[in-house]
Specification:
Elements lengths: L5 E7 L3 E5 L26 E11 L2 E4 L27 H4 L2 H14 L7 E10 L19 E10 L1 E3 L1 E5 L8 E4 L4 E6 L4 E4 L2 E3 L5 E10 L5
Antiparallel strand pairs: 1-2, 2-10, 3-4, 3-5, 5-13, 6-10, 6-13, 7-12, 8-9, 8-11
Protein name: 2OG-Fe dioxygenase family protein
Keywords: Dioxygenase, Oxidoreductase
GO molecular function, one term: dioxygenase activity
């Protein structure tokens, strides 16, 4: 399997790692965030989302049948114990080499076994002068999976959106950083809680934050 990332300086006991994925030009992703359906499970219409799941054989991605996202209330007190359904990722997006490189970077970095199932969430959070955007409305949380990858695609006209990692909910974060386009944060979900702060516009008009969130297992049923 090809190696598609280079490490930067930050590691914490090999339990979370920040990578810069140099094989990906994020400009190639941007058009696919403009037609995301609104997330119907979050009030306020500030979040849009698609979701698909994959397995990888060598350097080849296989898209799996449609499924439902499910988390227990132990992990998601806001939307736990609800079967959530989202539209699949656009086929033209999945066919891009940069998309394959992103999934391979996640697999390589987490040392996943060949049969591992990966969920890929495509998420846009928006904000306006009248409304904040909340990337993590459930608060400080775990997802209930093994590994998480957060890949930044776009930050446009926003402030905030800083990602935090915690060893316990009531402790200070051990990691705090705004993820810039091309950066991939990998997290052991068994060891850390995570949270991203709300966003607001820097100037008049709309602000956007686009990310891919990858999980293994996929959390889809």
């Amino acid at each position: 399997m090809q190696k598609v990332w280079e490490s930067t300086e930050l590691e914490y006991a090999f339990l979370f790692t920040l990578r810069k994925v140099n094989s990906i030009n994020t400009e190639g992703f941007k058009q696919f965030f403009n037609n995301l359906p609104v997330d119907p499970y979050i009030k306020g219409n500030y979040r849009s989302r698609r979701l698909s799941r994959f397995t990888v054989s060598g350097d080849n991605l296989t898209k799996l049948p449609h499924g439902y996202l499910f988390q227990s209330k132990d992990y998601n007190p806001l939307l736990g114990d609800i079967k959530r359904e989202f539209a699949e990722l656009d086929d033209a997006l999945v066919e891009l080499d940069i998309f394959k490189n992103l999934v391979l970077a996640f697999i390589d970095s987490c040392k996943l076994h060949p049969e591992a199932e990966i969920g890929v969430h495509q998420i846009r959070t928006t904000c306006s002068p009248d409304n904040l955007g909340n990337p993590a409305p459930e608060g400080i949380h775990r997802d209930g999976t093994d590994f998480i990858g957060i890949f930044s695609v776009t930050r446009e006209n926003i402030q905030g959106g800083e990602t935090h990692l915690y060893t316990a909910k009531k402790e200070k974060p051990v990691f705090s950083k705004i993820l810039h386009p091309g950066e991939l944060l990998l997290v052991n979900d068994h060891e850390f809680f995570h949270f991203t702060t709300p966003i607001k516009p820097q100037t008049e008009g709309q602000g956007i934050r686009d990310v891919f969130v990858l999980t293994s297992p996929s959390l889809l049923t």
